[in-house]
Amino acid sequence: MTVIELHKSEARATALPFYAAQGAECALFEHAWKRQLPLLVKGPTGCGKTRFVEHMAARLGRPLITVSCHDDLSASDLVGRFLIGQGSTIWSDGPLARAVRSGAICYLDEVVEARKDTTVVLHPLADDRRILPIERTGEQLAAPPEFMLVISYNPGYQNLLKGLKPSTRQRFVALSLGYPAPEVERTIVQAETGVTQACAAQLVRLAQALRNLTDHDLEETASTRLLVAAGRLVSAGLPMALACRAAIVDALTDDPATAEALHEVVRAVVGDGD
Length: 274
Hints:
Layout: E1 3-7, H1 25-34, E2 39-42, H2 49-60, E3 64-68, H3 75-79, E4 80-85, E5 88-93, H4 95-102, E6 105-109, H5 116-119, H6 123-126, E7 131-134, E8 139-142, E9 148-153, H7 166-169, E10 173-176, H8 182-193, H9 197-211, H10 224-235, H11 240-252, H12 256-270
Parallel strand pairs: 2-9, 2-10, 3-6, 6-9
Antiparallel strand pairs: 1-3, 4-5, 7-8
Helix pairs in contact: 8-9, 8-10, 9-10, 9-12, 10-11, 11-12
Protein backbone atom coordinates (compact mmCIF):
# COMPACT_ATOMS: atom_id res chain seq x y z
CA MET A 1 0.00 0.00 0.00
CA THR A 2 1.01 3.59 -0.55
CA VAL A 3 2.48 5.42 2.42
CA ILE A 4 0.27 8.48 2.78
CA GLU A 5 0.54 11.36 5.14
CA LEU A 6 -2.50 13.62 5.23
CA HIS A 7 -1.91 16.95 6.89
CA LYS A 8 -5.44 18.11 7.55
CA SER A 9 -4.70 20.97 9.91
CA GLU A 10 -4.81 24.40 8.35
CA ALA A 11 -1.54 26.33 8.37
CA ARG A 12 -3.12 29.32 10.04
CA ALA A 13 -3.77 27.20 13.14
CA THR A 14 -0.21 25.94 13.44
CA ALA A 15 3.30 27.34 13.30
CA LEU A 16 5.09 27.20 9.97
CA PRO A 17 7.48 24.25 9.65
CA PHE A 18 11.00 25.67 9.85
CA TYR A 19 12.65 26.21 6.48
CA ALA A 20 15.72 28.31 5.65
CA ALA A 21 15.50 29.49 2.05
CA GLN A 22 18.46 28.90 -0.25
CA GLY A 23 17.37 31.43 -2.84
CA ALA A 24 14.13 32.41 -4.55
CA GLU A 25 12.47 29.00 -4.26
CA CYS A 26 9.69 30.23 -1.96
CA ALA A 27 8.68 32.96 -4.41
CA LEU A 28 8.79 30.50 -7.32
CA PHE A 29 6.55 28.03 -5.48
CA GLU A 30 4.04 30.72 -4.55
CA HIS A 31 3.86 32.15 -8.07
CA ALA A 32 3.45 28.65 -9.55
CA TRP A 33 0.57 28.00 -7.13
CA LYS A 34 -1.11 31.31 -7.97
CA ARG A 35 -0.84 30.60 -11.71
CA GLN A 36 -2.02 26.96 -11.29
CA LEU A 37 1.25 25.50 -12.55
CA PRO A 38 2.54 22.09 -11.40
CA LEU A 39 6.01 22.04 -9.85
CA LEU A 40 8.92 19.61 -10.10
CA VAL A 41 11.41 19.85 -7.22
CA LYS A 42 14.72 18.07 -7.76
CA GLY A 43 17.74 17.73 -5.54
CA PRO A 44 19.96 15.28 -3.67
CA THR A 45 18.75 13.13 -0.79
CA GLY A 46 18.29 15.00 2.46
CA CYS A 47 18.64 18.53 1.06
CA GLY A 48 15.22 19.66 2.31
CA LYS A 49 12.79 19.00 -0.56
CA THR A 50 10.02 17.58 1.62
CA ARG A 51 10.44 20.20 4.35
CA PHE A 52 10.29 22.91 1.68
CA VAL A 53 6.95 21.60 0.38
CA GLU A 54 5.57 21.27 3.93
CA HIS A 55 6.64 24.83 4.68
CA MET A 56 5.04 26.23 1.54
CA ALA A 57 1.77 24.34 2.03
CA ALA A 58 1.49 25.76 5.53
CA ARG A 59 2.51 29.21 4.33
CA LEU A 60 -0.22 29.17 1.67
CA GLY A 61 -2.80 27.79 4.09
CA ARG A 62 -3.47 24.63 2.08
CA PRO A 63 -3.76 21.05 3.32
CA LEU A 64 -0.95 18.79 2.14
CA ILE A 65 -1.31 15.20 0.98
CA THR A 66 2.03 13.41 0.60
CA VAL A 67 2.56 10.14 -1.25
CA SER A 68 5.89 8.32 -0.90
CA CYS A 69 6.29 6.67 -4.30
CA HIS A 70 7.67 3.15 -4.78
CA ASP A 71 7.99 0.65 -7.61
CA ASP A 72 4.70 -1.11 -6.74
CA LEU A 73 2.69 2.12 -6.82
CA SER A 74 -0.21 1.71 -9.22
CA ALA A 75 -2.60 4.19 -10.77
CA SER A 76 -5.32 2.79 -8.51
CA ASP A 77 -3.20 3.61 -5.46
CA LEU A 78 -3.27 7.25 -6.57
CA VAL A 79 -6.75 7.61 -8.04
CA GLY A 80 -8.81 5.12 -6.03
CA ARG A 81 -10.52 1.74 -6.22
CA PHE A 82 -13.74 -0.09 -5.44
CA LEU A 83 -13.80 -1.78 -2.05
CA ILE A 84 -16.00 -4.77 -1.27
CA GLY A 85 -17.73 -4.97 2.07
CA GLN A 86 -21.04 -6.16 3.51
CA GLY A 87 -22.32 -7.41 0.18
CA SER A 88 -21.73 -4.18 -1.75
CA THR A 89 -18.96 -2.28 -3.48
CA ILE A 90 -18.01 1.22 -2.44
CA TRP A 91 -15.71 3.59 -4.30
CA SER A 92 -12.79 4.88 -2.23
CA ASP A 93 -10.81 7.87 -3.48
CA GLY A 94 -7.04 7.59 -3.57
CA PRO A 95 -4.81 10.42 -2.30
CA LEU A 96 -4.63 12.16 -5.68
CA ALA A 97 -8.41 12.22 -6.08
CA ARG A 98 -8.86 13.43 -2.50
CA ALA A 99 -6.39 16.24 -3.11
CA VAL A 100 -8.22 17.34 -6.25
CA ARG A 101 -11.63 17.28 -4.56
CA SER A 102 -10.42 19.25 -1.54
CA GLY A 103 -8.17 21.73 -3.33
CA ALA A 104 -5.12 20.46 -1.45
CA ILE A 105 -1.48 20.38 -2.48
CA CYS A 106 -0.59 16.84 -3.58
CA TYR A 107 3.09 15.98 -3.19
CA LEU A 108 4.47 12.87 -4.89
CA ASP A 109 7.84 12.24 -3.24
CA GLU A 110 10.52 10.47 -5.34
CA VAL A 111 8.13 10.14 -8.26
CA VAL A 112 10.68 8.30 -10.43
CA GLU A 113 10.28 5.30 -8.12
CA ALA A 114 6.74 4.82 -9.43
CA ARG A 115 6.04 2.82 -12.58
CA LYS A 116 5.97 4.85 -15.79
CA ASP A 117 2.42 3.70 -16.57
CA THR A 118 1.41 5.14 -13.19
CA THR A 119 2.84 8.61 -13.78
CA VAL A 120 0.85 8.91 -17.03
CA VAL A 121 -2.26 9.45 -14.89
CA LEU A 122 -0.75 12.82 -13.92
CA HIS A 123 -0.73 14.17 -17.48
CA PRO A 124 -4.26 15.64 -17.69
CA LEU A 125 -3.78 17.22 -14.25
CA ALA A 126 -0.42 18.74 -15.15
CA ASP A 127 -1.43 20.56 -18.34
CA ASP A 128 -4.05 23.15 -19.18
CA ARG A 129 -6.90 20.68 -18.72
CA ARG A 130 -6.33 20.29 -14.96
CA ILE A 131 -8.67 17.31 -14.80
CA LEU A 132 -8.45 13.85 -13.28
CA PRO A 133 -10.46 11.26 -15.23
CA ILE A 134 -11.62 8.33 -13.09
CA GLU A 135 -12.22 5.61 -15.65
CA ARG A 136 -13.81 3.11 -13.27
CA THR A 137 -16.60 5.48 -12.24
CA GLY A 138 -16.82 7.57 -15.39
CA GLU A 139 -16.21 10.68 -13.31
CA GLN A 140 -14.02 13.52 -14.46
CA LEU A 141 -12.74 15.68 -11.61
CA ALA A 142 -11.90 19.30 -12.41
CA ALA A 143 -9.18 20.67 -10.15
CA PRO A 144 -10.16 23.84 -8.27
CA PRO A 145 -7.82 26.85 -8.42
CA GLU A 146 -6.36 26.01 -5.00
CA PHE A 147 -5.15 22.55 -6.07
CA MET A 148 -1.46 22.13 -6.84
CA LEU A 149 0.53 19.10 -8.00
CA VAL A 150 4.13 18.88 -6.79
CA ILE A 151 6.53 16.05 -7.57
CA SER A 152 10.14 15.48 -6.55
CA TYR A 153 13.06 13.24 -7.33
CA ASN A 154 16.79 12.88 -6.85
CA PRO A 155 18.59 13.40 -10.20
CA GLY A 156 21.46 11.25 -8.93
CA TYR A 157 19.21 8.20 -9.00
CA GLN A 158 18.17 8.62 -12.62
CA ASN A 159 19.13 5.96 -15.14
CA LEU A 160 17.64 4.35 -18.21
CA LEU A 161 15.15 2.41 -16.10
CA LYS A 162 14.25 5.17 -13.65
CA GLY A 163 13.63 8.62 -14.96
CA LEU A 164 10.84 10.95 -15.96
CA LYS A 165 9.56 10.69 -19.51
CA PRO A 166 9.95 13.96 -21.45
CA SER A 167 6.19 13.99 -21.94
CA THR A 168 5.83 14.09 -18.15
CA ARG A 169 8.61 16.44 -17.09
CA GLN A 170 7.81 19.07 -19.72
CA ARG A 171 4.44 19.62 -18.09
CA PHE A 172 6.11 20.95 -14.93
CA VAL A 173 7.88 24.10 -13.84
CA ALA A 174 11.22 22.85 -12.46
CA LEU A 175 13.07 23.92 -9.33
CA SER A 176 16.54 22.65 -8.40
CA LEU A 177 17.66 22.51 -4.78
CA GLY A 178 21.12 21.63 -3.55
CA TYR A 179 22.74 21.43 -0.16
CA PRO A 180 22.52 24.84 1.52
CA ALA A 181 25.40 27.27 1.69
CA PRO A 182 27.47 26.81 4.88
CA GLU A 183 25.97 29.79 6.71
CA VAL A 184 22.43 28.64 5.88
CA GLU A 185 23.20 25.04 6.79
CA ARG A 186 24.60 26.15 10.17
CA THR A 187 21.35 27.99 10.84
CA ILE A 188 19.33 24.90 9.93
CA VAL A 189 21.36 22.54 12.12
CA GLN A 190 21.22 24.87 15.09
CA ALA A 191 17.48 25.54 14.72
CA GLU A 192 16.57 21.87 14.26
CA THR A 193 18.76 20.43 17.01
CA GLY A 194 19.37 23.08 19.65
CA VAL A 195 23.16 22.58 19.58
CA THR A 196 25.52 25.50 20.06
CA GLN A 197 26.63 27.66 17.17
CA ALA A 198 30.14 26.22 17.45
CA CYS A 199 28.83 22.65 17.30
CA ALA A 200 26.65 23.44 14.29
CA ALA A 201 29.64 25.00 12.53
CA GLN A 202 31.73 21.91 13.25
CA LEU A 203 29.08 19.61 11.78
CA VAL A 204 28.83 21.73 8.65
CA ARG A 205 32.62 21.70 8.23
CA LEU A 206 32.50 17.91 8.50
CA ALA A 207 29.80 17.74 5.83
CA GLN A 208 31.85 19.90 3.48
CA ALA A 209 34.89 17.69 3.99
CA LEU A 210 32.89 14.54 3.29
CA ARG A 211 31.22 16.07 0.22
CA ASN A 212 34.64 16.88 -1.22
CA LEU A 213 35.80 13.28 -1.04
CA THR A 214 36.41 11.75 -4.48
CA ASP A 215 38.37 8.61 -3.62
CA HIS A 216 35.43 6.61 -2.26
CA ASP A 217 32.54 5.29 -4.31
CA LEU A 218 29.65 6.51 -2.16
CA GLU A 219 26.10 6.44 -3.51
CA GLU A 220 25.29 9.47 -1.36
CA THR A 221 27.23 12.01 0.65
CA ALA A 222 26.61 13.71 3.97
CA SER A 223 23.21 15.39 3.71
CA THR A 224 21.71 18.13 5.83
CA ARG A 225 19.32 15.51 7.19
CA LEU A 226 22.26 13.46 8.51
CA LEU A 227 23.77 16.55 10.13
CA VAL A 228 20.49 17.21 11.92
CA ALA A 229 20.39 13.61 13.15
CA ALA A 230 23.94 13.90 14.48
CA GLY A 231 23.15 17.23 16.11
CA ARG A 232 20.14 15.78 17.89
CA LEU A 233 22.29 12.99 19.30
CA VAL A 234 24.83 15.55 20.50
CA SER A 235 22.12 17.69 22.11
CA ALA A 236 20.91 14.56 23.92
CA GLY A 237 24.36 14.13 25.45
CA LEU A 238 26.21 11.79 23.08
CA PRO A 239 29.87 12.68 22.37
CA MET A 240 30.34 14.40 19.03
CA ALA A 241 32.61 11.74 17.48
CA LEU A 242 30.22 8.93 18.41
CA ALA A 243 27.21 10.88 17.18
CA CYS A 244 28.92 11.50 13.83
CA ARG A 245 29.89 7.84 13.52
CA ALA A 246 26.33 6.65 14.17
CA ALA A 247 24.34 9.29 12.30
CA ILE A 248 26.66 10.06 9.39
CA VAL A 249 29.44 7.53 8.73
CA ASP A 250 27.50 4.31 9.34
CA ALA A 251 24.47 5.75 7.55
CA LEU A 252 26.54 6.35 4.41
CA THR A 253 28.27 2.98 3.99
CA ASP A 254 28.36 -0.66 5.08
CA ASP A 255 31.89 -1.22 3.79
CA PRO A 256 34.33 -1.40 6.75
CA ALA A 257 37.26 0.10 4.84
CA THR A 258 35.18 3.00 3.54
CA ALA A 259 33.67 3.56 6.97
CA GLU A 260 37.11 3.75 8.54
CA ALA A 261 38.25 6.23 5.89
CA LEU A 262 35.21 8.40 6.57
CA HIS A 263 35.81 8.18 10.30
CA GLU A 264 39.34 9.45 9.74
CA VAL A 265 37.75 12.57 8.29
CA VAL A 266 35.51 12.78 11.37
CA ARG A 267 38.57 12.57 13.62
CA ALA A 268 40.34 15.27 11.64
CA VAL A 269 37.38 17.66 11.88
CA VAL A 270 35.78 16.98 15.27
CA GLY A 271 38.46 14.95 17.08
CA ASP A 272 38.07 11.77 19.14
CA GLY A 273 36.79 13.25 22.37
CA ASP A 274 33.58 14.87 23.51
